[in-house]
Amino acid sequence: MSTIVGAKSFADVATVVGMLGGFASCVAIQAGTSRLMFVMGRDDALPRRVFGRPHRKPLTPVTNVLIIGAVGLPAMNLSLADATSFINFGAFLGFTLVNVCVIAYAVRQWRAGTRHSAVRYLLLPAAGAAIDVHLFTQLGGTAVRLGLGWLVIGMGWLAVITKGFRRPAPELRLRSGEEGGAAGPEASGPLLPTA
User: Fold this and answer.
1) Cβ contacts of residue 125 below 8 Å, gap of 6+?
2) What digits encode the pLDDT tens for the residues 113-169?
3) Which of 31, 34, 116, 179 could be disulfide-bonded to 64 (CB atoms 3.0-4.6 Å)?
């Protein structure tokens, strides 16, 4: 397409810009995901010994960066359509569950005697969930298989750390100095080792 619009030189520029953008996105995703895994390890949602300890010198979760790189390496064989479908799998599933949770919240509140707007708490979330389910059905087969595989792995791990869903799941604990809210009494101490 870019050769039709601007000849070969424009196509070359568009290719280089696309590659640089993809590389920058991969670095940002790898850094962000490694830090998310660090927090999950620190809060015992993942094994602390592997995921919850930063490297001593740069004070970054180097092990997590390497794990993300190793998991992401096979993704180089995915087409762009499969990769974006895989990302959309998680987004559509997450949005669907948020809408279902709003409905569940409204039903619980209704049973407790508190009335909420049926349009805002039932109709709109149901419409949102229906749209998300429809979009979910439009995803490619590879993305659905990969997404379901990761979902099964995640549910299996959740079953392990909650002792068969008999214990509550670990929650995010904010520490002093972190964004997002005031720290509680259990949140004393530095985020990362200082020396």
Assistant:
1) 99, 100, 102, 103
2) 888 888 999 999 999 999 999 998 888 888 888 888 988 998 999 899 899 989 988
3) 34
Q: To 5 degrees, how large is the angle CA 42–CA 86–CA 44?
A: 10
Per-residue burial over 97-129, b if 16 or more Cβ lie within 10 Å, else e, is: eebeebbeebeeeeeeeeeeeeeebbeebeebb
Alpha-carbon span 45 to 154, nearest angstrom: 11
**CA atoms of 37 and 140, how far apart (whole Å):** 28
Residue whose tokens read 């962000």: 32
pLDDT digit string (tens) for 75-99? 788 777 777 788 888 889 999 999 9
Distance between CA 132 and CA 135 in Å, rounded?
A: 5
Cα 93–chain centre separation: 11
Could you write out the DSSP letters of every residue in 90-152? HHHHHHHHHHHHHHHHHHHHHHTT----HIIIIIHHHHHHHHHHHHHHTS-HHHHHHHHHHHH
Question: Residue with structure tokens 């995915």?
Answer: 78
How far, in Å, are 111, 144, 173, 178, 187 from residue 184 at the CA level?
32, 40, 9, 12, 5
Of 23, 26, 34, 42, which is closest to residue 65 (Cα–Cα)? 34
